[in-house]
């Protein structure tokens, strides 16, 4: 159990949250949202009070991945605060629940919207707030990391050379901000069929890119590496609005997320 963060400087809405964990990737489509959502529901299953903040203003995935009854965020007009919606006990805030179409916004506006959504939400007491970061390491991500006192970061990548190079960028960003990067998840590295294991992106280990990647991991002392296989059920559950760890709590995927949950 983590210690609560109590600081005068913290935005009021964040003062009752013990751990704020960023799930980050340098590219879109590598499985960052899938991992953020399944990690959140695993922590909830382990007994924690959990919230998810979907910070991807341009392409919010949370509304597809979970099925709250109330799909629009409510406002407390008097206090000028946002009430999160909820699905299976996890509190949820996403631009996709803001009741507007996808916006065309410039970077500084995006940072303002993210800041407002995040800090004026009535999160209440939470053990973990999982932030599904917008992909990349640009100004929006930096501003977000500066507003929020992150306690840990998880970086998601796929096993290709270009992605490994990007991981180094992500790790450096968090390192500069003094946020501990506790795990890297290598997603979609293999799948099993007909009793055999296939590596569709090539077998990373031994290649130059893999060695470069491991060097970064060692240099920054990232303590945990996870492999998440390609699983059709993981994709199908993401589309169905029920995370795989909820649909199959005893399954192979749930075990991986339980191990990741212990690390954050
Ligand atoms: P990101 O947040 O990085 O853009 P998503 O989590 O939205 O990525 O994942 C992109 C797509 O890939 C989604 O359709 C998701 O269901 C699917 N996906 C992610 N990880 C896996 C996996 N390990 N196996 C199968 N499908 C996956």
TrEMBL record:
Intracellular or extracellular location(s): Plastid, Chloroplast stroma
Family: Belongs to the Mrp/NBP35 ATP-binding proteins family.
Official protein name in the record: Fe-S cluster assembly factor HCF101, chloroplastic
